[in-house]
Amino acid sequence: MATRRSTADASAPTDYRRGTRARHERLLALVRAGSTGVDELATALQISPSTVRRDLAHLNTTGAITRTYGGASSAPPFRERELSDRVTVEHAAKGAIAARAVELVPLGATIFLDAGSTCGELARQLWHTEGLTVVTRSLDSALYLASAPSLEVIVTGGRVARTSHGLEGPLADLALGRYMVDVAFLGVDALDPVDGVGEPTLPEAQVKDTAARRARRVVVLADASKLSRGAVPAWAPLPRGWTLITNEVDDDILDRYRSEGVAVISTEVRAEPR
């Protein structure tokens, strides 16, 4: 009897999380369908208005919706910014994140380096590293690292994504599928502790999925603005036990990742003057 009680007790938190997640999904579907008032949502879901408000606050934190007076509206459609526009955004945070990432590169390792502004900062900090092999889908990082005296640089090939200058598609997947790297460093447009890496297109999500599956360790580089789902349409799951490096310091947000087995490295960065 004692064993049965302990087993049931152990499964209760998991069942509770599943129930909460299912309720959040139903609530989000109603908001996207046009139901925006708290009372209307409470009636549709047969829950209390206070529960609706609490759930809306959570979905607002993740970026899935936008809170309004007395209710909520759907988050605006996701639109990826040009790489040249992203380089200067959160520059200090990205530099600090990249510096911590360098510490995770084993001596003589083979790594995968993703496209994007934060991974581009990591490329700059890896230039003087000796005995490193870098497999990358980033045209910008490949060209920058090509002149490094002690690095071997391998480019995946594939179609060039206009906004990120990253390579994607079947050729990139085929090349990555032939490698096993020590560490895969991934950039993101959005991040979720359960669903993984969010991207604007399925081909970009697919190439990150392939890179993650062909790595002994997966490290995601994401400043605080990326730790939400937003309206990003395509997602790549990550293997359990991946690592997140971020400048986010809010434990309420970071605990969502820790509870899913993510190793969190938080680097606090002083805000830049406006």
Distance between the termini: 63 Å
Strand content: 15-25%
Mean pLDDT: 84
- What is the CATH-assigned architecture of the largest domain? 3-Layer(aba) Sandwich
E-strand count: 14
**CATH fold descriptor of the largest domain:** Rossmann fold
List low-pLDDT spans. Answer: 1-13
Structural class: alpha/beta
What does the radius of gyration come to?
20 Å
What would you note in describing this structure?
This protein is α/β, with parallel strands linked by helices and 274 residues long. It folds into two domains: 73 residues, Arc Repressor Mutant, subunit A (Orthogonal Bundle); 184 residues, Rossmann fold, CATH 3.40.50. 42% of the residues lie in helices and 21% in strands. The protein contains ten helices and 14 strands. A seven-stranded parallel β-sheet has the order 5-4-3-8-11-13-14, with helices on both faces. It has a three-stranded antiparallel β-sheet with strand order 9-10-12, covered by helices on one side. Strands 1-2 form a two-stranded antiparallel sheet. The N terminus is likely disordered.
